[in-house]
Write a structure and sequence with these properties.
The protein has helices at about 20-30, 65-75, 100-125, 150-170, 190-200, 205-215, 225-235; strands spanning about 10-15, 35-40, 45-50, 55, 80-85, 130-135, 175-180, 245-250. By secondary structure, the chain is an alpha/beta fold. The chain has a single domain (about 10-185, about 225-250), classed as NAD(P)-binding Rossmann-like Domain (Rossmann fold, 3-Layer(aba) Sandwich), CATH 3.40.50.720. α1 (about 20-30) links the parallel β1 and β2. The model has no long low-confidence stretch (mean pLDDT about 95). InterPro entries: NAD(P)-bd_dom_sf, Sc_DH/Rdtase_CS, SDR_fam.
Amino acid sequence: MIAIDLSNRLAVVTGGRSGIGKGVVEQLLKAGATVISADITIEQEYEPAGARLIETRLDLSRSADVERWVSVVTAEAGVPDIVVNCAGTSTMDYVIDSSLADWEKVFSINTTGLYLTSKLFAKAMVEAQKPGRIIQIASQAGKNGYRAMGAYCASKHAVLGLTKVMAIELAKHGILVNAVCPGIVETPMKHRERIEGGAIRGMTAQEIYEEDCSQVPLGRTAQVEDVAGVVLFLTSQLASYMTGQAINVTGGMTMH
């Protein structure tokens, strides 16, 4: 077995306090990386939380905050080798009943915030002549449509488009840009979606869960570790000839 060793690598993870982001942080730490975990739930601005873990507050919905945060990170820790954009949000409603405010909220985090984070760190990598990895946590919702998730699906489609363009533009600098497209993952956001989606569709959260499982060929929904392992692979030398990809981690639910 080839061990993945990220010693002497600096990784930045948005949305690192819960869900997939938390799982990614844990995997990167196990592989030896120094990790900066950014999340809106973190109170401090920039503070070591452990030997190789630094936690910092970030509100991705505020462009000025993203710009300030990237500036602080690069000044305090240097240009990262790895950037993983995990932070995301969703709203539940049929498109004809949805609000512009909800649309803008989802796009401000899932798309605009991700775009700024990717752009600014990529620019820092280019200026420092430092090859790196940028990994976007997209979704199978970036390839398909799902009822009551118009804003979320549209935002994730945009992420995949951005991934492909950045992969082309940054290839000459040795910066690899890929996306991971999880399927149904057991996270706090998914649990909330089952309650809200069930209310819209006249179903219980348990019924939604059973429906979810029935749609997956492997017969179960994903745990965060299933996704984090693929992210870890993309950070490693094992993925040194991959860029511009949108990798499904869906248990066979999405195959394109």
